[in-house]
Design goal:
The structure holds two protein chains of two kinds.
Chain A (H helix, E strand, L loop, with lengths): L1 H20 L24 E3 L6 E6 L6 E7 L4 E11 L2 E13 L6 E7 L8 E18 L2 E7 L4 E12 L2 E6 L1
Antiparallel strand pairs in A: 1-7, 2-3, 3-6, 4-5, 4-7, 7-8, 7-9, 9-10
Chain B lengths: L1 H25 L3 H17 L1 H10 L4 H15 L6 H26 L4 H18 L5 H21 L2 H4 L4 H5 L7 H18 L12 H20 L1 H17 L2 H13 L2 H11 L4 H10 L2 H5 L7 H21 L3
Classes of the chains: A mainly beta, B mainly alpha.
């Protein structure tokens, strides 16, 4: 019984010393002093790698009919997609689209896709509106390097207008 | 044999960590890394009680356990199998090794020192593997040699040497199974859960320092307990925590981590006493209690509260078990 009482006395004494020494209360003598406490739920630090200005080009692939190469200069590791619109009968219609192409490699500067664009029948000349959207990836630094945590909330969009002509049965693409 | 088990513990944890790290290096997305690391931890820690129970029931299976571990870990390092199969194989191999070796150490020795030394080496292997300092194959090669050697020894040795149940357990205090023992067990498991939340938050800039402190703490806890006794050791740990909390910076973190880890051999030995006929299952139960700390990273207990709660749990459990000793 004595031993038990002694044990409880020691425990309570030390408990009191601990709570006094580390009490999370404002010291009346120094109201600005609070014991430092680590954040309970640290928010993971993430970042986007914006490395260059985005851009894209559209060129004809000579040996393939109606096939064009869309080459995008990536702002960094991102997801990207494209849409091609043409003016048909006074209205703008979507004639080709693709995405969401994922580039997670930090070293990769550009990505390209082959796309098929058909001029509407009975037309010699068509204006094309090509739009490309880039959504950068958000990365978290880990001991194994930066890892994709998700996508950024912002999306960058670029648009260029091209003209597609039929000359001697061949399609010729010009940037306007 | 203790030296071989300790070395194997270092190697097995090293293989698993290095294989998982090799996957993490080439995986660009964070979400699958978190998922597979979680799955690995779940299998490795969460299945130990069941594996332990099986090995306790079928004691002769321990003879084959180390070869089984070698095969599963060897296959687990092969990325051609896919990360799902790798995770399951590595988790399973790790679980079987810990339980087989842990139960042998628990049966074969009755003091704290050997337990402390056996459990200490894992943290260092884990750190070397996780930080890609050593790849899986050097670990695997050494593990193969030791596993074959230990299997050979077990195969040719007298059964009692390895799967001894009578001689060793007669030296240990027998504890009758009742409410006191149950309460003591809950307190001890609670103490391990608490230790899981002590974590290594400060460990990131110090790749090897904290794992070495973990190892030193576990070994030191066993050695001190054998020399000074259980009661004096838990009081020493408590006072060490108190001293650490008066300091600041790295010194405080190191001392605190050292003190928290010193409790490991104590809790393991006492948990074994609660049910000495099932050393594997009891070892597995203790390992399973580390899972909450692995999964709930956001939750942390102030170190002051932890030092007090840990001391109270250990003191109460020790008192309950001693009171109940036959």
């Amino acid at each position: 019984m004595r031993a038990l009482l002694g044990l409880f006395t020691v425990v309570l004494s030390l408990f009191t010393i601990f709570s006094t020494a580390h009490a999370d209360v404002i010291d009346p003598g120094n109201p600005y002093r609070r014991p430092p406490r680590p954040p309970v739920e640290p928010i993971p630090v993430t970042r986007v790698y914006k490395m260059r200005a985005p851009d894209f080009t559209l060129t004809k692939i000579e040996d393939k009919e109606n096939t064009y190469l869309l080459r995008a200069t990536l702002p960094g590791p991102c997801e990207w997609e494209y849409k091609v619109y043409a003016a048909i009968d006074g209205a703008t219609k979507e004639i080709a689209k693709g995405g969401r192409y994922s580039v997670q490699d930090l070293e990769k500067e550009s990505d390209s896709r082959e796309i098929v664009i058909q001029i509407p029948e009975g037309k010699d000349k068509t204006e094309l509106l090509v739009g490309v959207e880039f959504t950068l990836y958000r990365f978290q630094e880990t001991r194994y390097g930066p890892k994709v945590y998700g996508t950024d909330s912002r999306t960058q969009a670029l648009e260029h207008v091209y003209q597609l002509d039929a000359v001697d049965g061949k399609q010729v693409l010009k940037k306007l | 044999m203790l030296a071989i088990f300790t070395a194997l513990h270092f190697l097995v944890d090293g293989i698993c960590a290095a294989a998982m790290a090799a996957y993490a290096v080439q995986e660009p997305l964070l979400a699958p890394i978190v998922y597979y690391f979680g799955l690995y931890n779940g299998i490795a820690f969460g299945t130990q009680w069941l594996t332990g129970w099986l090995l306790d029931k079928k004691e002769q299976w321990i003879r084959y356990a180390f070869l089984f571990v070698l095969v599963t870990l060897g296959a687990g390092t092969q990325s051609a199998l896919g990360i799902k199969a790798q995770t399951v194989l590595l988790g399973l191999g790790n679980s079987v090794f810990h339980v087989a070796a842990g139960s042998l150490v628990l049966r074969h020795y009755t003091t704290y020192k050997e337990l402390g030394i056996f459990v200490s080496s894992g943290a260092v292997g884990l750190a070397l593997g996780l930080n890609c300092i050593v790849g899986p194959y050097p670990f695997l090669l050494a593990c193969a040699v030791l596993s074959v050697f230990i299997t050979y020894c077990m195969w040719h040795a007298d059964t009692v040497v390895f799967v001894q149940t009578d001689a060793g357990s007669s030296k240990e205090p027998g504890v009758s199974l009742n409410l006191f023992t149950g309460t003591g067990l809950v307190l001890l498991l609670g103490c391990i859960v608490l230790r899981g939340f002590s974590g290594g938050n400060a460990a990131s800039p110090y790749v090897m320092l904290f794992p070495c402190v973990f190892a030193a703490g576990k070994a030191l806890g066993g050695i001190v307990c054998d020399r000074a006794g259980y009661r004096k050791t838990i009081l020493f740990i408590f006072l060490l925590c108190f001293a650490a909390l008066q300091l600041s910076g790295l010194a405080a973190s190191v001392l605190l981590v050292l003190a928290f880890n010193m409790t490991m051999p104590l809790t393991l030995r006492l948990i074994h006493w609660c049910n000495p006929r099932y050393p594997g299952m009891m070892f597995g139960l203790a390992a399973g209690c580390l899972l909450p700390g692995v999964f709930f990273k956001g939750f942390s207990i102030p170190p002051q509260a932890m030092a007090v709660l840990q001391f109270l749990c250990l003191a109460a459990a020790g008192w309950l078990l001693r009171k109940n000793t036959i």
